[in-house]
Amino acid sequence: MTNKLKYFIGNWKMFGDFKDFKIVNKINQFSYSPRYRSKKKKIILCVPNVLLDNFNKKIGYNHISLGAQNCHHYHGSGPFTGSVNASMLKSSGAEYIILGHSENRSEGESYSIIKKKIISSLDKKFIVIFCIGESLADKRAKKTYSVLREQINGSLDKKFDVNKIIIAYEPVWSIGTNKIPKTHELIKTVKFIKKEYKKIFKTKIDPKVLYGGSVNNKNIGLFSQIDELDGFLIGSASQSSKKFIDIVKNYYK
Ligand code: PEP
Question: For 207, which of 38, 148, 195, 230 is 20 to 30 Å away at the CA?
């Protein structure tokens, strides 16, 4: 195992309540516990918008960061009922933001809308967790690479700062299904994403690429062997402090 920085990012989705601050608190304490504080890791919890400000104020000295899960594409204020912009999320304490999640793409979020969201979030000094991934039909039709290339091309821009974008590779067929890619396929795909990104944007800097989809405390052992991965986006297992902490512990076993 290398000494590279690894990300463990929780995506609570539309789950959680104010009382779940105890989960945040436990993970925060764990992150700084004697055995794990020296690990080169970054823990981020992306919680529902309404919890951000409350959690941010309560957390005190934090060894983890908070993130949001989406924003409206318009950078300013406007007549967009029920929406929040990047600026509002920033002032609520979020430092990271998930954009392009397949659950939002499936609601009709287009490449250009995602791009606008990225621009607006970068403008507000967010670190963007940009999700890409092929569907089961794409995989079966052997279109994985062309879909990933299209998603990268469609929403990223070479003007973006590679250091402010983290790519989360989340095959749609692995989200919430307990199915994970074969190790050799995952390594190939992560290498492809890094290479493609560098080619498109004519950069020598490797983008950070995470894996997301049914990560749990058992399969994390497999993933920990994959040096090409810069970390993980964790959905349902991040809604329990025990499950999330066990993932991090087992990663470093
Ligand atoms: C997600 O939705 O980002 C995700 C990774 O979900 P899960 O871990 O539950 O598959």
Answer: 38
Q: Which domain holds residue 37?
A: 6-251
What CATH code is carried by the domain that includes residue 129?
A: 3.20.20.70
One-character DSSP codes across 10-47: EE-TT---GGGHHHHHHHHHHHTSTTTTTS-EEEEEE-
Q: Range with the lowest mean pLDDT among 29-33, 182-186, 199-203?
A: 199-203
Instruction: In whole angstroms, give the CA distance from residue 122 to residue 161.
Output: 9
Q: From the CA of 70, how far away is ligand 1's center (Å)?
A: 15
Q: Of 103, 109, 134, 170, which residue is the catalytic one?
A: 170
Q: Is 67 in the pocket of ligand 1 (CB under 6 A)?
A: no
pTM as predicted: 0.97
Pocket flag, ligand 1, residue 212 (CB < 6 Å): yes
